[in-house]
Structure to design on (200 residues):
C-alpha cells in the first residue's frame, strides 16, 4: 500500500483533491479530523487537556474551546509541547489504526491530508509527498469567497505557513490548482495514474 502525504497551504485545494482521489478508490485520512476526534467531548484526550490546562479551555457545551487553548499554548513553547505530548501520541495511534484497517481492506493507495506536513517536517513518514500548488492571491480569493474569511486574515494565515518554494522543495509530485475545477479534475486524473504506477 502506497502511503501518500498530501499537503498545501490554506485554501490550496487539498480537500478537493482528496475527494477526487477518494472517488478513484484511495482511502483518505484527514489529519485535522483526527486531531479533533482525539479531544472530542467524552474522550480521555480531552480529560487530559483539561487536567493540564484547566476548565478555562472548555466551552459552555463541554467541547474544547480552541481559541482559549490557543491563547495559552501559542504564547508559550513549553505549554505547546505539553499539549503536543497529549495530542500527538493519540493522533499517531488513531492513524495507525486507520492505516491497518485500509491495508486489511486491500487499499492500494492511502492518502493522508496533512495541512502542516512540511512545516512539521513529516516528509519521512510517507512514500510520496504530493503538494497542491495554488498561487497565494488565488487562495485569498477562493477562501474569502467561499468561507467568508476576510482577505487580510487569509493573507496572515498564508504568511504563518511554509512559503511556496519551501513547500515545493518537499514535493515528489505537484498538483497545479491555479485553473478551473475542470482543469483540477484532469490534474487529479493524471496524479491518480502516477500514484497507481508507484503503488505497483
Ligand atoms: P484548508 O487547508 O484551508 O482546509 P484546502 O487546501 O482543503 O483548504 P479546499 O477547501 O479544497 O482547500 O479549497 C479551498 C476553496 O477553494 C474551497 O471553497 C473550494 O471549493 C475552492 N476551490 C478549490 N479548487 C478550486 C478551483 N479549481 N476553482 C475554484 N474554486 C476552487
Amino acid at each position: 500500500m502506497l502511503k501518500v502525504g498530501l499537503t498545501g497551504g490554506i485554501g490550496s485545494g487539498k480537500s478537493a483533491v482528496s475527494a477526487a482521489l477518494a472517488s478513484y478508490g484511495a482511502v483518505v485520512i484527514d489529519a485535522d479530523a483526527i486531531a479533533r476526534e482525539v479531544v472530542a467531548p467524552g474522550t480521555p484526550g480531552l480529560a487530559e487537556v483539561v487536567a493540564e490546562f484547566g476548565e478555562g479551555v472548555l466551552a459552555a457545551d463541554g467541547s474544547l474551546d480552541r481559541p482559549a487553548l490557543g491563547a495559552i499554548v501559542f504564547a508559550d513553547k513549553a505549554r505547546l509541547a505539553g499539549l503536543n505530548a497529549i495530542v500527538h501520541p493519540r493522533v499517531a495511534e488513531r492513524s495507525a489504526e486507520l492505516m491497518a484497517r485500509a491495508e486489511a481492506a486491500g487499499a492500494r493507495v492511502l492518502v493522508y491530508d496533512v495541512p502542516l506536513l512540511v512545516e512539521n517536517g513529516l516528509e519521512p513518514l510517507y512514500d510520496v509527498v504530493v503538494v497542491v500548488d495554488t498561487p497565494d492571491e488565488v487562495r485569498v480569493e477562493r477562501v474569502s469567497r467561499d468561507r467568508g474569511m476576510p482577505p487580510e486574515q487569509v493573507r496572515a494565515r498564508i504568511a504563518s505557513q511554509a512559503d511556496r518554494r519551501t513547500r515545493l522543495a518537499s514535493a515528489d509530485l505537484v498538483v497545479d490548482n491555479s485553473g478551473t475545477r475542470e482543469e483540477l479534475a484532469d490534474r487529479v486524473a493524471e496524479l491518480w495514474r502516477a500514484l497507481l504506477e508507484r503503488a505497483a
Q: What stands out?
A: The beta strands are 2-7, 27-30, 109-113, 128-133, 173-176. Residues 32 and 114 are 7 Å apart (CA to CA).
